[in-house]
Amino acid sequence: MYMAGSITITGSTIVSTDKGDILFVTANETTTISAFSRVSVICDDALRFNLLSAIVNSLVDFHTDIESGTVYLNTTPNLNITGFAGYTIGTSGVSAIKMFLANGVAAGSFSFVSGTNPYFSIPIILKRLDNTYVAICIYYEITNAYQVGLVGAYCSIYAPTYAGTDTIPGISIIQPEFFSEWEDAGYGGTCYVIIYNSGFSDYFSGLSPYIPDTDPYLPGGTTDEGGGTGTFDDTSDPIPVPDLPTVTVTDTGFISLYTPTLAQLKSLATYLWDSNGLDLDTFKRIFSDPISAILGLSLVPINPGAGTSASVILGNIDTGVTMPRVQNQFIRFSCGSLTIEEYWGGYLDYSPYTRAEIYLPFIGAKPLNVDDIMGKTVTLWYLFDILSGGCVACLECNGSILYQFMGECACSIPITGRDLTNVINGLLTVVGAGVGAMVATGGAMAAAGGATLAGVAGAGAAAAAGSLARNVTGMKTYVEKSGSMGGMGGMLGVKTPYIILTRPRQALPANQNTYTGYPSYITTLLGDCSGFTVVQDVHLEGLTATEEEKAEIGRLLREGVYL
Amino acid sequence: MSFSCVLQVNASEDNRLTKDLTTITTLDGVLKQETSILTPTIVFEYPLTVMAGANYMTIAAFGRSYFITDIRSVTAVLTEVTLRVDVLGTYQNGIRACTAIVGRQETRWNLYLDDGSFRVYSNPNVLTRAFPSHFGDDFYFVLAVAGDQSSS
Fold first, then answer.
1. CB–CB of A516 and B117 under 8 A?
2. Which residue of B lies nearest to A558 if distances are taken between CA atoms?
């Protein structure tokens, strides 16, 4: 993980260029540069240690991942440095030009090339595995008639966002003045460029020569780092039970709804089938027969609420039979809440080990994802439409509706022969659908179960005494607990909603934790653990053991030890 | 050059850091030629019976503790003891100072992690939890009639 770092060194003159900021160290001042993408520093000999300290500290600050990566040191020789007129071998007293690593091993010879553009490129860089640059730090050492030793240093620290090629643009921002002054001062003799890397050695272990890629697939690109940019936003918007519709069918003026008592219905029936009370001539202006004015008669499981009573009018004929009007076409009913508590307090309480279904009156049994309800409070709501008989069951989990199932709550009462035919056909349809669903589900699950069984058969005796939890639960067949429970089925069926939990029974040997431990997966000091411990990964540090002993310790820790 | 060897009885599992040790005796021994510090062979000028009951040895001069893998009588008064270093016992303090990712643990666990090591019986428990409110046995008639009768 990269972090924006800051660097604090002593003395500063910052020159902004199109390639970045240059920090000239000229005086004992404190300068802080933060959130940089690249910082290049040139300083003189007296301040080189401050510079180094700043470099190292800043690398620690924002290259916290570098310890885990391999850093390549590109030791490609034949450096091409321009802008140093007079600094070729054999001129101005320069007898040799060499580049040294900090440990004194020459990485390669190079030559200064005279030119008018006083910049150079130097392909000696510290690279990460993803080819992003980390830093370059160069010390200039000169040996001539005037002095021997370091005369300056250059450092360029690259932020990880830089994804360049082997040509480091940061190098080109070294200003010519530095070298011009150097030259003007009459320095000559042997010139050394030292790549200082000992300061990094604590952080970049395992430096090895960078080998240029010759992979023909390389132009296609290499793997990028990615991920880890999630928001970790665990908030959840509440999805409440929907409000009831505000417009009802009765508002349209085409339909009127009554909730009669049995006696009132008998009175109406008597009126309808007693021709003395009905002016058929008038009625038939609108309907073919009186019964056509009655759109439906049904039984519903919920009290629709009795409004004002009124005489029933069929067509334009007042029957004289009074009954209360339905107060609400849409009704909401709460079945209350259930808290589904964990039994094991562990993974066995969740899928695929524990399974859940919900039985809903007038709808049937429906599977639930136990992960949605375990450890939560669930509330069941029903929304009814008295006219159509439709209902929707809404299951609310922790404030949000997660499940909605539709059903049929009304039981139609036939008042004509045609109505009875419809009822019977509807019933057959319901039964057929239920059977079909059960067969289809059973078949699919049987196939899955068979496949699992075939796999388990090879396990032999292991399956006899008890199987791995996931295998057992995986090969269990699922059978629907009910078909559709609408209409008459709902009237005759169970009218209490309930949740069915299928809970595994753990086969746990006594003191299993003593023998094998329980899953832990935590990073901790081993001294904070006691008893049987299986180590997944460990860094054995600070031990005076031999390599063979360390390997043995690592093996034993991974197999399990008693701490 | 001889060195002091503490002969002990280890009553613990080999894979336990802190062994349950009972000291039998302390004897001076010498290294056999061409031996390793990890699997040394120590020669004692004692009869085998003196150390026959030991299965563990601590040699302070080596800074290590050892399992005794074999005790062999060379002569009536010369016994060779072959050892194998007990890395857990020897470096137990250093090991405890190390940080690790612990996969399984006896007392520090998280049972929400499923590593596939648990087993279940084939016959689960099936139970029901009823919602507190339910529909009654009473049903209500609803009569739908064509036309607006609100004026009546």
1. yes
2. B103
**Residue whose structure tokens are 């005790």:** B71
Distance CA A541, CA B20 (A): 26
B125 contacts A526? CB cut-off 8 A: no
End-to-end CA distance of chain B: 124
Q: CA A330, CA A311: separation in Å to the nearest integer?
A: 23
Q: What is the pTM for the complete model shown? A: 0.61
Cα–Cα distance, A341 to B118 (Å, whole number): 21
Q: Which residue of A has its CA nearest to B102?
A: A535
pLDDT 10s digits, A155-197: 444 443 333 332 222 222 233 333 334 344 443 322 222 222 2
Scanning A349-487, the segments in alpha helix (DSSP H) are 370-373, 417-457, 462-465, 469-475
**CA B68, CA B86: separation in Å to the nearest integer?**
10
**Predicted ipTM?**
0.92
B72 vs A354: CA distance, rounded Å: 59
Report the distance separating Cα B111 and Cα A516, nearest Å. 14
- Which class for A87: exposed (0-12), middle (13-18), buried (19 or more C-beta within 10 A)? buried
Beta bridge partners of A497: none
Burial A95-124 (b: 16+ CB within 10 A, else e): eebebbbeeeeebeebebeeeeebebebbb
Euclidean distance between CA atoms B114 and A401, whole angstroms: 29
Partner-chain contact B102 A255, CB within 8 Å? no
Where b means 16+ CB within 10 Å and e means fewer, A542-563 reads ebebeeebbebbbebbeebbbb
- Around A414, how many Cα atoms within 13 Å sit in the side-chain half-sphere? 13
Is residue A169 exposed (0-12), middle (13-18) or buried (19+ Cβ within 10 Å)?
Answer: middle
